[in-house]
Amino acid sequence: MIAQLPSKRENSARIYVTPNIQHVAEMRRNPELRRAINEADLLTCDGFPLVSYARLSGCRLPGRITGREVAERLMLHTPLAPDHVLFFLVDSAETANAVKEWARHRELAGRVLVEVAPPRFGEDRVACAALAQRIREARTTILFLGLGAPKCELFASRFRGQLGGCWALCIGQSVRVALGLVNAPPELWVKLRMEWAWRIIKEPRRLSRRYASASLGFAAAVLSDVLSSERARLTTPAVPTRS
Question: Options 1.20.58, 3.30.1460, 3.90.1570, 3.40.50; which CATH number does 14-185 get?
Fold first, then answer.
């Protein structure tokens, strides 16, 4: 669906988000992020805990689709129509250079633009508006936002009207994984639902505290949801049956 060019050029971006437990934890204390995710055009559950709790709550999900899978499918396995223009907003010069090499190898160099996000990206609204204008003027069709949450989601939501008719993909580090800069977890770890442990082993200093905070935030969100559902059940008046 993302790779298919629209029949008519639209004026605003369509936003794709892959929520995980970090998103849920952050949404509890960030109303703007909660609104951005609620208003996204396409959501797929990235984390196993979200899929499991959704199904327990009666939400029918076909399965789990991660940002890594989407990035890899688009960048490595999907033939893109000649009218596609890809814009990558990435975290570092290393990632930017890898994107350029990938574009050269795929013979897409003339249709791929890359920018490295400045430090503290998102705080300068004027600079973000100028970036959105550059993305629009390039006639971008797929925008890869390769930054961590909530930077991607907030930028896409704030400037969706200025980005033009593209898909804005909030997929974080998935671009680096697709490019081979970060090793994907082995299939066994994925089947055991232990990807989080694999990532912590690989980057303990960066991820240990983040995962602990996200886990507590997600647990609090689940508890709040269960309690509110129970209160609603108890306070709903019973409908009398006809004799």
Answer: 3.40.50
